[in-house]
Design brief:
single chain; about 350 residues; alpha+beta; 60s Ribosomal Protein L30, Chain: A; Phosphoribosyl-aminoimidazole Synthetase, Chain A, domain 2; 2 domains; 4-stranded mixed β-sheet; 11 helices; globular; nucleotide-binding; ATP binding; ligase; PurM-like_C_dom
């Protein structure tokens, strides 16, 4: 007689993983959460939204891409959750939305309870840092589809913003200043290119000490995504903000262009910052053109805010109070001042 376990799926190990992760999920909650994990659906008391005049719900779904391969090769799984939360929650923040709750999905070749608990630990700790409730999730065992040590993670999140405080392209005006917020490194994008350069082209190993990084290659590549949630919400509360852009896949210019209306053009000044060493090392080892680096990587800028010139210095100072290096990155002009309307160019 063939059992489910014979097919490679262990219900008992899945149950043990849930028990191990409960202590971490308990740290990622909000007063509006009803019940705990283990039900068929996470519950959130929406009566909290009654204080809004016209609440707009914002939703985002994402994963962390092939960065999970680095975590698997290093057998270190308690930071990849920060990457997932960063990719999800900070996509909400760009429209001014406060994140409310998040659910995750982990697919693996074999459930190793301690590994699953480490992944969820990272997700829960990042949720706690951003004020997001982790209300549920799913762990799926896929033997035959994924190798025993392989996994992938994804999630979805929901937030809320008052309609008249919605940030976006319609607020951007000529004369606005683009304020950059430094990234912690590669974040969670471009890892297919990065892995090809370091592993296939250069033949480096993850334990290689890299003087330019001041640490091993693996430590550099596994650096968690910086979370901008609370600083950006504080910024929008304290000063007039017209738009924000989360710099993820596609790079700085392409992501900023998503919040640039056809009535203006934007010019960014490369002389205002020096990208961290990992970006130049990738470019040099791979012989990659600047345009290709710009398209695949964040180049040291993880988030930008577009603000009136009168409050640009205040924005930089406020972000510095949250230990986020910020600076004047560029300016907004009339359409055709720096290029065709709706475009972003580099000086």
């Amino acid at each position: 007689m063939t059992s489910y376990a014979d097919a490679g799926v262990s219900v008992a190990e899945g149950d043990r993983a849930v028990e191990l992760m409960k202590q971490w999920v308990a740290k990622a909650t909000r007063p509006e959460v009803v019940g705990g994990i283990g039900g068929f659906a996470g519950l959130f008391d929406a009566s909290a939204l009654k204080s809004y005049d016209r609440p707009l719900l914002a939703s985002s779904a994402d994963g962390v891409g092939t960065k999970v391969a680095i975590a698997q090769r290093m057998d270190k799984h308690d930071t990849i959750g920060f990457d997932l939360v960063g990719m999800l929650v900070d996509d909400l923040v760009v429209c001014g939305a406060e994140p409310l709750f998040l659910t995750d999905y982990i697919a693996c070749g074999k459930v190793v309870p301690e590994r699953i608990a480490d992944i969820v630990k990272g997700i829960a700790m990042a949720c706690a840092e951003t004020g997001t409730a982790l209300v549920g999730g799913e762990t799926a065992e896929h033997p035959g589809l994924l190798a025993p040590d392989e996994y992938d993670i994804a999630g979805s999140t929901t937030g809320v913003v008052e309609a008249d405080r919605l940030l976006g392209a319609e607020r951007v005006r000529p004369g606005d200043v683009v304020v950059a917020m430094a990234s912690s490194g590669l974040h969670s994008n471009g890892y297919s290119l990065v892995r090809k350069v370091f592993f296939d082209v250069a033949g480096w190993e993850l334990d290689r000490e890299v003087p330019e990084f001041g640490r091993t290659l693996g430590e550099e590549l596994l650096t968690p995504t910086r979370l901008y949630t609370k600083p950006c919400l504080a910024l929008a509360d304290a000063i007039e903000v017209h738009a924000m852009s989360h710099i993820t896949g596609g790079g700085l210019a392409a992501n900023l262009a998503r919040v640039v209306p056809e009535s203006v053009s934007v010019r960014l000044d490369r002389s205002t910052w020096t990208p961290p060493a990992v970006f130049s090392v990738v470019g040099e080892l791979g012989g990659i053109a600047q345009a290709d680096l710009d398209e695949a990587l964040n180049m040291g800028v993880g988030m930008v805010a577009v603000v009136p010139p009168s409050v640009a210095d205040e924005a930089v100072a406020l972000l510095g109070g949250y230990d986020i290096e910020a600076w004047h990155l560029g300016e907004v002009g009339e359409a055709d001042a720096f290029g065709p309307g709706g475009t972003v160019t580099f000086a």
